[in-house]
């Protein structure tokens, strides 16, 4: 939860306000999308929830406690492809377990990784290297690497921006299936309103820099959702227009 959070960066001796008095409540097990113009501080919100840096004022709370150091309850997936090219799919997915869960023995670790490979639809590709995979498959590996550690909360920063529209829609289905299975809480940053509405229980629209939350909108579309069909849902056009009107003002 963010309570009156502001963040100012010092760049070359100059103060650069990035966020101003942001209040955001994210209920456990829900999916929240953050949308807003470039540079309005969306990634900064994720970085503070992850404990990478502290707010300048206000509080970032996780499970009722102020986040003061690296938050190990969260998994983080960025737009950038961060797979290690010298490691196989299997060894890339195993990485967070090797680093963070030394309590899990090698046999259980191997089983968890194998289950995860199957769950994200990459059976038979465990011994492939990232360079031998398509863009969509690499995203699946990144998704598996984040989920294998079973974090309670997933922070996702435009994770599918580099994919073509069809593959992105396929990944939306996969993400919803997997997060519902693990009952994960998700905070998802995107520029794409349609993506936000397809995935989220709640969309927060930010103003331009310094970012404030302009509007929070519940998305009352029943789950499970079929990402190929959501766009034809009667409610969606109205919600999209309402949110787009708010966002457009900030882009101008
Ligand atoms: N570590 C940092 N040091 C200095 N300035 C930073 C740092 N991180 C972010 N900023 C600044 O804070 C502002 C918000 O950046 P942020 O990356 O959070 O925006 P964003 O909404 O995620 O943008 P985009 O949609 O373009 O990714 C920007 O002006 C950026 O230059």
Automatic annotation (TrEMBL):
<keyword id="KW-0813">Transport</keyword>
<dbReference type="GO" id="GO:0016887">
    <property type="term" value="F:ATP hydrolysis activity"/>
</dbReference>
<dbReference type="InterPro" id="IPR003439">
    <property type="entry name" value="ABC_transporter-like_ATP-bd"/>
</dbReference>
<dbReference type="InterPro" id="IPR017871">
    <property type="entry name" value="ABC_transporter-like_CS"/>
</dbReference>
<keyword id="KW-0547">Nucleotide-binding</keyword>
<dbReference type="Pfam" id="PF00005">
    <property type="entry name" value="ABC_tran"/>
</dbReference>
<dbReference type="InterPro" id="IPR027417">
    <property type="entry name" value="P-loop_NTPase"/>
</dbReference>
<feature type="domain" description="ABC transporter">
    <location>
        <begin position="2"/>
        <end position="233"/>
    </location>
</feature>
<protein>
    <submittedName>
        <fullName>ABC transporter ATP-binding protein</fullName>
    </submittedName>
</protein>
<dbReference type="InterPro" id="IPR003593">
    <property type="entry name" value="AAA+_ATPase"/>
</dbReference>
<keyword id="KW-0067">ATP-binding</keyword>
<dbReference type="InterPro" id="IPR050166">
    <property type="entry name" value="ABC_transporter_ATP-bind"/>
</dbReference>
<comment type="similarity">
    <text>Belongs to the ABC transporter superfamily.</text>
</comment>
<dbReference type="GO" id="GO:0005524">
    <property type="term" value="F:ATP binding"/>
</dbReference>
């Amino acid at each position: 939860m963010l309570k009156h959070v502001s963040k100012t960066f010092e760049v070359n001796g100059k103060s650069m306000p990035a966020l101003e008095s942001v209040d955001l409540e994210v209920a456990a097990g829900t999916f929240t999308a953050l949308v807003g113009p470039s540079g309005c501080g969306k990634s900064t919100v994720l970085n503070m929830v992850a404990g990478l840096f502290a707010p300048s004022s206000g509080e970032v709370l996780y499970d009722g406690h102020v986040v003061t150091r690296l938050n190990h309850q969260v998994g983080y997936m960025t737009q950038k492809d961060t797979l290690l090219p010298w490691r196989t799919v299997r060894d890339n997915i195993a990485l967070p377990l090797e680093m963070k869960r030394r309590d899990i023995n090698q046999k259980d670790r191997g089983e968890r990784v194998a289950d995860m490979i199957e769950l994200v639809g990459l059976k038979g590709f465990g011994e492939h290297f990232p360079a031998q995979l398509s863009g969509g498959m690499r995203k699946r590996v990144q998704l598996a690497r984040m989920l294998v550690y079973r974090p309670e909360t997933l922070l996702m920063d435009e994770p599918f921006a580099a994919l073509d529209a069809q593959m992105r829609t396929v990944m939306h289905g996969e993400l919803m299936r997997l997060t519902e299975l693990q009952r994960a809480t998700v905070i998802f940053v995107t520029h794409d309103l349609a993506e936000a509405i397809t995935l989220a229980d709640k969309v927060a629209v930010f103003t331009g820099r310094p970012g404030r939350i302009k509007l929070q909108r519940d998305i009352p579309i029943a789950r499970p959702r079929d990402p190929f069909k959501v766009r034809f849902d009667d409610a969606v056009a109205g919600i999209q227009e309402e949110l787009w009107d708010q966002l457009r003002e900030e882009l101008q």
